Fold this protein.
Amino acid sequence: MKYHVLVNGNHYEVEITRHGGGVRARHADHDHQVDVATLDDGDAYSLLIDGRSVDVGVEERGDRVELLVSGRRYSSEVLGEREWLARSIQAASGEGETVVRAVMTGIVRDVLVAPGDEVQPGQVVLILEAMKMENEVKADAGGTVSALHCATGDTVELDQLLVEFD
Amino acid sequence: MTARTIKTLLVANRGEIALRVMRTCREMGIRTVAVYSDADRDALHVRAAFAAVNIGPAPSAKSYLCADKIVQAALDTGADAIHPGFGFLSENAAFVRQVREAGLIFVGPSPEAMEAMGDKIEARRRMLAADVPVVPGTTEPAEDDATLVADAERIGYPVMIKASAGGGGKGIRIVHTPDELLPAAQRASSEAATAFGNGAVYLEKFLLEPRHIEVQIFGDSHGNVVHLGERECSIQRRHQKVVEERPSPLLNAELRERMGAMAVQAAKAIGYENAGTLEFLVDAERNFYMLEMNTRLQVEHPVTELTCGIDMVRWQMLVAQGEALPLSQDQITHDGHAIECRLYAEDADNGFLPATGRVTRLELPQGPGVRVDSGLFDGMQVGLHYDPMLAKISVHADDREHAIARMIRALAEVTITGVVTNLPFLRRVLESEAFRSGRYDTGTIESNPETFAPKVSEVREQQVAVIAAVMAHVLRRRRGFVDRSEGAPAGTPSAWVDAYRPGGSR
């Protein structure tokens, strides 16, 4: 099965096949033998990649796969062939949703925009607080606010949709 | 004060510091009472205590900051003393009064000493009167614009505008040129008025890249004050300490002695009892100025304990019981080098955003010369209501070089999955040339972002892509199998994928 993986905006193709007790991952003409053992009923795994031992934490949200490898977090997106194709077509036609998502789990302290507001790229649209620290959440792209999905005082999860633009 | 023996102590805190206090109590034969919020029912401090009392919902304003509930919990459980730990109510003079009026012992200084050092303008006046050097600046709240402009001119730019009632970075502005002064003063004042109910601001000279070195002092009710040496705390990010060590690589014996004596002089000037810390800024010419006093036990107290062998919580309890300090100044000696690293639930590779989650796997360092103060446990939910500091890892060795090697080894032994921590950042700090050479200051981390930024090699990114594909494949297949067994529609993968179930068939 072929997967398209996005890490830091870079695209990697990885082909996974069943092999022995584990799987074989083929990337850029290199084969890696990977054995996966679950460490508990949670999200932690011990991987042996070509015999090298790596501890991995995994959190899945749709296509997104958050990895914790040796204490470091990596965000990736793992798409099948069909999803990758759909994504490429969407990108080519210039349609892409313009939204603001929660950069972390936290409490909304202040919403600085309302539906109908014109927002510039980089403008602060709301204040999110966690662990006594306030963080400004900015809009990457500008536009007119078409919908607000949160209010002051709401607790929001990482990646939750907060603001939509036209 | 007449001597009273503490038999039962309520710890008005949570996490690693609550456990730290309880450990000493257990050694002293003192029973402990924990308080906990709804979010902390399964926390280690609740399990470690003799008894525990629920004090309300998760937000600290409704639980750990409720003086009434805490004092009532102490009375209900027959406690005769309260230890505040740090943070929360630890520097709240009104709380101390309430504890004392309830007939209980507060393990800490008097409310008067807290107030004297809590208001920054008042503290500057008291220290100047006691011949303790403070950062050059004003000792009156700014009266009008003309005075402010003249004062800033006299002190010399850059200057800092600070709120008298300030704390936590609120109400502080750095001003580099005269035209920025008045608008900045206005914003600082209104911020302070909102945050602290007191808009008084004053000016301080802004020292360029100073070192932050603090001195631990201890006073008793018999008029004795001693110091337990310094702690070097210059490795900071956004005014938050990250790594501390003792001795400071900057100080020589003469400067160490002078700063220690000055800290004792400052504590005596306000009749200070119990544990306290004088924070100093030290400039490039090794001039030192008192910055502020922390009237409580400090987070980083383990580095002092490791080098002088004193259990500071035990001393706090003895002094609170009205006893004299166990040692005089010339009986206190230090040995070797200690370093502490603070493990924060922060994504250091992603703008240091606070991280939440459930700890799925946990391994903490062990072995020679390692001390761990941690509130972590398997399955712990790291929520968004409390401080992100999860644990402190400290090491002790013969000399600095050995201590650094030992800390790097200890950090390598840490495994935490389920919640992101600043562990990789701590490793980068310990391995940096700035830290190894000992030539660093409070600006080192922020003025060298590239040194402390994560380095993702191309090879590493490819590995991550492979791991992501493998895990997505395994998890999606596993779900497919489970779905089918629960009556999912046909077309889902066949049962052979069970062989992929991690750990399932092996």
